[in-house]
Design goal:
Blueprint (H helix, E strand, L loop, with lengths): L2 H23 L4 H54 L1
């Protein structure tokens, strides 16, 4: 390989490297911003799901308390029938 060809190859490699570096440090492209929008949407979705889980857990606790109250009332009623 002659020195002219070697110089051309090195310059091509340098140009490719320069373009890669330019892309890495330049402002975000549409694909990059799309990634950020999808990530933000995913985080909001996770927050909504966590809120929904919390609400369901609160509903379950409330239902459990209602069931416990009904059980206590039934126990008192049975005690009244047994003691009479």
């Amino acid at each position: 390989m002659t020195s002219v060809k070697r110089t051309a190859v090195v310059q091509g490699q340098n140009a490719a490297h320069f373009l890669l570096m330019l892309r890495c440090f330049s402002r975000p492209t549409f694909a990059d911003t799309s990634f950020f929008f999808r990530a933000e949407y995913g985080e909001k979705t996770v927050q909504k799901l966590n809120l929904r889980i919390d609400n369901i857990m609160n509903d379950l606790v409330a239902e459990k308390m209602k069931t416990q109250n009904v059980n206590d009332d039934l126990d008192q009623t049975f005690e009244l029938f047994i003691n009479q």
